[in-house]
């Protein structure tokens, strides 16, 4: 039925040019889906009027879940009846976004039967997004997905779908098994993901090295960033090969080292490992010559978020190092304490990083029973307004 | 429920993380030794065992139809034993154990209109949000902006000739579902008018929730014609749209006042310098669909000035910190205005607190 496609004169301009066109994608889906055709029509209206036509909300979902579906309604539903209800399902992605062709086809077949035929691969949090369907199709879609081995992700004030980098699946820099940790934590907190229990959303992302390919420091309330404790492994012959292949070891490596811990005498590369901040630059430049050390694990950081409500935050250090084989148990215990505190003291729509800003990191540390360490700050306080605590009898 | 119905499945979680892995990846899991960048969009990862896995990366528009996904599945069957993945920046990757199939796959992807690249010192695909496709609070369209910008910097995706990697992100409002706030270049949709309170508010919205939703406390209770509604302290509104999220009777969208701001110099990687937020470069550019020529021009300007001035390995923010912001504004020709100076919480931390001035 391609003849039914709306005219969409403005959007036709976005079919031109070398980058693959999302307008062509909507038109492809429109071959078999009336809602994709109405989406094109409504989007053309937005391009004409320079404004969106969606409304948020409504209690839509699948039986027994309080999340995983985003309710969406058109404010131009009389003009575009097939997108009057256009709800989105968030499907929990496989860790590292690995698929087989059969898995992709299974998803496509389910979505052809029940929805618009449009997807996002993937949403910003990491979920596989099935974009747009009617309320009545939500439960049947969910049950077919479940039979195929897929479940919904998080939405609202829940434990949001965790995501991770490829980690040990295809990266020599992985300092811990990010895909396994991400999977194990996802399985451990299905209830918190599907039945929103928190003051606001809570995100967790696993990056297996300080390059942070999933932007965990900026985008997650709890950031698990792989690192190592011992010495960078050096293959001096490989360093020499890089040098003879044109890498200026002094200028491109040593001079850019933030810890100023490297020396190059033209033959050997010396590293003062206790001065190394584990930034990854030298390893990134010479992946055949340098590798993270053998004593691997992660730094655990807390509080990252985008601006809403009280301003953007980067995560900050909570535990400077946890050994790889202790990560799962440590994080579970940590989450129990963090969520207890945040449930008790967090305001509605206050991310945990904002709760920490409001009550202060020292009070938060008291609350979760963690001792302060200097790795937590870039510098000690420079203001003298110290709120000394009441002293017990005999205490000085 | 009838006696014959199957049990309802819930809380099964995602597929196991090993379920869709290439056998060669499963075999060498955690045993990778090093990698080589063979060409833009092509990696070879070498395992301790000597096994090699080849990755071919292509750009996609993120918004994908089932028809296109089936084409990707067919390509995977033809070239990579059926194994494929997506990246955190919406790229598509095929995982091959046979290097002889790399070039034919590249050629077929390019012929189908999917550019191969996005690795190393290239501009990778743009992380973005839903925009007018699916979002209620969007001040601009995300997919359209991405398409126009990537058309303009296409050669920077297929080549690796920048000083360092360059990451662009688009978010269609301040909520930043795309977390654009730590990108080398961030394109951020902005509203510039407070919400328009509709007479239906008392009927369709819960007033206390609505008041609590405002980050700056700009929404106050009010009584109009004996009904409980709200008033907005307009000077306190920074146009985030949170009120509209919880109450559909507070619409924000306004054709003449919505548009785009541009931010630069953020990063998330710890390499060399610490992660940093993007800073304001251009406070407002009106929406000009379908091709947003002014936004595209500004982004291209930033990319080109960076490409010709930054040193090798310097990310956008590292380069600007070295040369100083006055020089950034001079080189780009962007006007520095009152909007560039922070006046929210902790604003003073961004003021120049030394006599270090470049002349």
Task: Give the topology, please.
The complex is a heterodimer of chains A (396) and B (359).
Chain A: H1 9-12, H2 22-30, H3 34-49, E1 54-56, E2 69-70, E3 72-74, E4 87-91, E5 98-100, H4 101-114, E6 118-120, E7 128-133, H5 135-147, E8 163-164, H6 178-188, H7 190-194, E9 204-207, H8 216-219, E10 222-228, E11 233-234, H9 236-244, H10 249-253, E12 262-264, E13 269-271, H11 281-285, E14 290-291, E15 296-302, E16 316-323, H12 327-345, H13 352-359, H14 361-368
Parallel strand pairs in A: 8-9, 9-10
Antiparallel strand pairs in A: 1-3, 2-4, 4-7, 6-7, 10-15, 11-14, 12-13, 15-16
Chain B: H1 23-27, E1 32-39, E2 42-47, E3 52-59, E4 63-65, H2 66-79, E5 83-86, E6 91-96, H3 102-112, E7 127-128, H4 142-152, H5 154-158, E8 168-171, E9 185-190, H6 201-204, H7 207-212, E10 219-224, E11 227-232, H8 242-246, E12 259-264, E13 279-286, H9 293-309, H10 316-323, H11 325-332
Parallel strand pairs in B: 7-8, 8-9
Antiparallel strand pairs in B: 1-2, 2-3, 3-6, 5-6, 9-12, 10-11, 12-13
Helix pairs in contact in B: 4-9
User: What characterizes the major β-sheet of chain A?
Assistant: 5 strands, mixed
Strand order of the largest sheet of chain A: 8-9-10-15-16
The rough form of chain A would be described as globular
* Number of distinct helices of chain B: 11
Report the structural category of chain A.
alpha+beta
Mean pLDDT of chain A: 95
Short précis:
Chain A has 396 residues and is α+β, with helices and mostly antiparallel strands.
Structure description:
The complex is a heterodimer of chains A (396) and B (359). Chain A is built from 14 helices and 16 strands. Chain A has helices at residues 9-12, 22-30, 34-49, 101-114, 135-147, 178-188, 190-194, 216-219, 236-244, 249-253, 281-285, 327-345, 352-359, 361-368; strands at 54-56, 69-70, 72-74, 87-91, 98-100, 118-120, 128-133, 163-164, 204-207, 222-228, 233-234, 262-264, 269-271, 290-291, 296-302, 316-323. Chain A is globular and about 70 Å long. The model of chain A has no long low-confidence stretch (mean pLDDT 95). With 359 residues, chain B is an alpha+beta fold. Helices cover 26% and strands 20% of the residues of chain B. In chain B, β10 and β11 (227-232) form a beta hairpin. Chain B starts with 22 loop residues before the first helix and ends in a 27-residue tail after the last helix. At the A-B interface, α2, α3, β1, β5 and α4 of A face β1, β3, β4, α2 and β5 of B. β5 of chain A pairs antiparallel with β5 of chain B.
């Amino acid at each position: 039925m391609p003849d039914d496609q709306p005219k969409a004169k403005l959007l036709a301009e976005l079919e031109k040019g070398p980058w693959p066109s999302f307008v062509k994608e909507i038109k492809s889906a429109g071959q078999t889906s009336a809602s994709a055709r109405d989406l094109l029509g409504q989007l053309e209206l937005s391009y004409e009027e320079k404004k969106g036509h969606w409304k948020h909300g409504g209690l839509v979902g699948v039986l027994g879940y309080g999340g995983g579906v985003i309710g969406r309604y058109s404010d131009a539903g009389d003009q575009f009846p097939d997108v009057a209800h256009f709800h989105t399902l968030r499907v929990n992605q496989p860790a590292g976004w690995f698929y087989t062709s059969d898995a992709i086809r299974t998803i496509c077949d389910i979505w052809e039967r029940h929805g618009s035929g449009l997807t996002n691969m993937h949403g910003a949090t990491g979920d596989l997004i099935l974009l747009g369907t009617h309320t009545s199709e939500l439960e049947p879609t969910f049950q077919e997905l479940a039979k195929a081995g897929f479940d919904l992700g998080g939405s609202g004030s829940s434990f949001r779908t965790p995501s991770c980098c490829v980690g040990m699946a295809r990266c020599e820099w992985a300092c811990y098994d990010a895909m396994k940790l991400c999977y194990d934590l996802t399985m451990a907190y299905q209830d918190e993901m599907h039945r929103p229990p928190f003051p606001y959303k809570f995100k967790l992302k696993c990056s297996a090295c300080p390059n942070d390919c999933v932007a965990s420091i900026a985008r997650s309330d709890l950031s698990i960033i792989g690192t190592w404790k011992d010495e960078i492994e050096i293959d001096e012959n490989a360093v020499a090969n890089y040098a003879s292949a044109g890498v200026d070891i002094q200028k491109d490596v040593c001079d850019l080292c933030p810890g100023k811990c490297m020396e190059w005498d033209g033959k050997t590369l010396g590293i003062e490992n206790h001065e190394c901040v584990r930034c990854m630059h030298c390893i990134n430049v010479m992946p055949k010559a340098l590798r993270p050390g053998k004593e691997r694990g992660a730094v655990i950081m807390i509080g990252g978020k985008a601006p809403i409500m009280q301003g953007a935050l980067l995560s900050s250090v909570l535990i400077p190092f946890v050994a790889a084989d202790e990560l799962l148990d440590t994080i579970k215990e940590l989450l129990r304490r963090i969520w207890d505190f945040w449930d008790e003291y967090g305001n509605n729509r206050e991310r945990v990083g904002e709760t920490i800003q409001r009550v202060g990191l020292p009070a938060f540390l008291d609350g979760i029973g963690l001792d302060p360490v200097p790795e937590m700050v870039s510098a000690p306080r420079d203001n003298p307004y110290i709120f000394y605590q009441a002293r017990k009898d005999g205490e000085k | 429920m009838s006696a014959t119905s199957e049990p309802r499945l819930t809380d099964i979680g995602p597929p196991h993380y090993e379920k869709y892995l290439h056998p060669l990846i499963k075999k060498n899991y955690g045993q990778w030794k090093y990698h080589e960048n063979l060409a833009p969009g092509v990696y070879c990862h070498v395992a301790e065992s000597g096994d090699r896995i080849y990755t071919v990366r292509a750009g996609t528009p993120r918004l994908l139809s089932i028809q296109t996904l089936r084409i990707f599945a067919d390509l995977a069957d033809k070239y990579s034993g059926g194994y494929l993945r997506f990246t955190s920046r919406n790229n598509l990757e095929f995982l091959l154990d046979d290097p002889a199939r790399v070039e034919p796959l590249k050629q077929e992807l390019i012929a189908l209109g999917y550019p191969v690249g996005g690795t190393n010192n290239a501009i990778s695909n743009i992380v973005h949000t839903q925009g007018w496709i699916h979002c209620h609070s969007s001040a601009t369209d995300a997919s359209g902006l991405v398409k126009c910008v990537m058309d303009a910097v296409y050669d920077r995706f297929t080549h690796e000739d920048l000083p360092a990697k360059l990451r662009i992100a688009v978010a269609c409002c301040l909520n930043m579902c795309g977390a654009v706030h730590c990108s080398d270049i961030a394109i951020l949709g902005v509203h510039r008018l407070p919400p328009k309170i509709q007479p239906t508010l008392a009927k369709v919205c819960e007033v206390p929730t609505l008041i609590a939703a405002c980050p700056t406390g700009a929404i106050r209770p009010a009584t109009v014609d004996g009904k409980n509604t709200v008033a907005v302290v307009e000077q306190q509104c920074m146009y985030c749209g949170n009120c509209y999220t919880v109450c559909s009777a507070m619409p924000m969208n306004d054709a003449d006042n919505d548009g785009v701001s541009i931010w630069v110099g953020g990063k998330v990687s710890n390499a060399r310098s610490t992660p940093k937020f993007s800073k304001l470069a251009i406070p407002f550019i009106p929406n000009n669909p379908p091709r947003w020529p002014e936004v595209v021009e500004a982004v291209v300007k930033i990319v080109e000035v960076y490409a010709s001035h930054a040193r090798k390995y310097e990310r956008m923010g590292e380069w600007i910190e070295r040369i100083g912001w006055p020089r950034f504004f001079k080189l780009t020709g962007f006007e520095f205005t009152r909007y560039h100076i922070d006046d929210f919480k902790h604003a003073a931390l961004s003021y120049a607190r030394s006599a270090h001035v470049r002349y």
